[in-house]
Amino acid sequence: MQAAYASSLSNDLKDYLVIQSMEMKKGYSGDGALQISREELGKRMLTAENYLTAHPSGLKKMQVQTLYTDYLKAYLSDYRYEAIDESTMKLLPAVKKSYRDFVKTRPDSKTAEIVKVYIGLLQENQDVIYDFGQKDVSIIGDPKSNIAQFWIGLSERVSQQFGAAK
């Protein structure tokens, strides 16, 4: 479709179709967990960020900003099985390293600014994400208060970075 109609589409819509084609090839989330690697999700976040930066009044800004926010939430909080050491409730070192690598390789991105703040919270908590759950109820308890507040405020952070979605 892109090739057939490319000459008729604005750059805004061409860039939007790139984002949509990535999602159609393979969704990023399903069955309560990431379906792609954090590195691939990071690439998708940057593709969405690039759209939002290049097209601040784009026709598909609202859809892309919503998708970007969903990507960011998944990237920073989808820890179902593969990211938390349940014996300590700490983020696994490999996941934290992926955050540091993201910031290191994309230091000027708006996404890196958000991830840096999150890394700071992790350091404050000595990498502990969750409290322990209640015996015979749940292994994992509530997120640490500063982590929970950060997660709750992600949509607002995105709006601050890119302006309110229209």
What is the chain-wise order of helices and strands? HHEEHHEEHHEEHH
Catalogue the unreliable spans. Answer: none
Please report which band the strand proportion falls in: under 5%, 5-15%, 15-25%, 25-35%, 35-45% or over 45%. Answer: 5-15%
Count of DSSP-assigned helices: 8
Describe the global form: elongated
Number-wise, the strands total: 6
Q: What structural category arises from helix and sheet content? A: mainly alpha
Gyration radius (Cα, Å) is 17 Å
- Distance, first to last CA: 26 Å
**Mean pLDDT over the full residue set:** 89
Main sheet: strand order = 1-2
Q: Main β-sheet: number of strands, strand sense, barrel status?
A: 2 strands, antiparallel
State the helicity in percent bands. 55-70%
Provide an overview of this structure.
59% of the residues lie in helices and 9% in strands. The chain has 8 helices and 6 strands, in the order ααββααββααββαα. The strands form 3 sheets. Strands 1-2 form a two-stranded antiparallel ribbon. It has a two-stranded antiparallel ribbon with strand order 3-4. A hairpin with a 2-residue loop joins strand 1 (29-30) and strand 2 (33-34). The chain is elongated. It starts with a helix and ends with a helix. The mean pLDDT is 89.
